[in-house]
Amino acid sequence: MQDTVLSSEFSSSPELVEKLYQNGITRHYREGDIILDENASIRSIPIVMKGMIKVIRTEEDGREILLYYIRSGESCIMSFLGGMHNEKSIVKAEVEEDAEILFLPVDKVSLFIKEHPEWLDYIFRLYHKRFEELLDIINAIAFKKVDERLLDLLNKKAELTQSQTIIITHEQLANELGTARVVVSRLLKQLEEAGRVQLGRNKIILLS
Question: How deeply is 48 buried, as exposed, middle or buried, from its count of CB atoms within 10 A (0-12, 13-18, 19+)?
Fold first, then answer.
């Protein structure tokens, strides 16, 4: 059995790990690649082996908002639900950090639920985590100002990448927050004047 993130995630079921590798297809992606687009058919479920993916929802007017990140060892619960019910994707999944992804055919997802309790538990844990993250998003949009949401997002990215230097454009931040670029640029300038960040070309350094 390969010593990977799956071996740690399903340590009590080596048989399940072997089946995941036997039935899945591993592919590599670069930052910015789209692995699943809105309205696309869901034929397989992505499990992130390395790197990170961000899941985005696009509104009719073209605005986007970040829903959650998928990290190593995790999968997309939206893909699980859509794939199992033969529905098209309602979200876009974009590679945030160069990634290695194992794609498991949808028909195997249902089969493994019947054969392996650990697989069902994995899905429920993902569902619980994503539900809490989406509640946080709703709470932030409803009760927090954009400057608070911006700082929260920067801190989240620093935590995920384990670096105080965040490589990102103002446009990308605006898309993830579902607001305008000019708003983000103005708020970042205010944060810089307050000594909270240092701005560079396509990068932001958190100072506190």
Answer: buried
Instruction: Determine contact, residues 100/51, Cβ cutoff 8 Å.
Output: yes
Per-run averaged pLDDT (10 residues), the chain, 208 residues: 75 92 95 94 94 90 86 92 89 94 93 93 94 88 88 91 92 89 94 92 89
Distance from C-alpha of 76 to C-alpha of 54, rounded to nearest angstrom: 10
* HSE (side-chain half, CA atoms, 13 Å) at 121: 9
- CA nearest neighbour of 123 among 19, 21, 45: 45
Helical (H) or strand (E) element with 64? strand 64-70
What are the structure tokens assigned to 89, written together?
């994707």
Distance, in Å, from the CA atom of 69 to the CA atom of 156, rounded to the nearest integer, reads: 10
Torsion of CA 151, 131, 107, 35, to 10 degrees: -10
Please count the residues of the chain: 208
- Answer left, alpha or beta for residue 62, where phi above 0 means left and psi between -120 and 50 means alpha: left
Report the predicted TM-score, pTM, of the whole model to 2 decimal places: 0.79
The DSSP call for residue 132 is H
Residues whose CB falls within 8 Å of the CB of residue 199, separated by 6 or more in sequence, listed in order: 188, 189, 192, 205
